[in-house]
Amino acid sequence: MALSSDDQKRISEALEARVSNWDCSLCGESDWTLADGIVAIVLQDTPGTVALGGRTLANFALTCSNCGNTLLLNGIVLGLRDIVEKEKKLEEEPGKPEER
Predict the structure, then answer these.
(1) CA-to-CA distance for 14 and 46, rounded, in angstroms?
(2) DSSP helix/strand/coil, 43
(3) Going along the chain, which residue ranges are E strands?
(4) Lower CB count within 10 Å: N or C terminus of the chain?
């Protein structure tokens, strides 16, 4: 699900308030792009198995525009639980995305 422009703005503001050094750890550049959605990392209870669905960590992805280094930043820790939960709710709703 694509993030609204308001959500993108709030994510950017949350990052600006917390991040003091925007230099990429791999290439040293400081040009980042926010992915248009949430990256869900599935938490697994049993090592060595593949879990579909279940508990997840909801992250926003920033990608270095120069080298592709990608950072995942936890939406809950950033104080953006409402965006994370809204996106999760939209994904769970039945029907086609264009019907929402």
Answers:
(1) 34
(2) coil
(3) 32-34, 39-42, 56-64, 70-74
(4) C
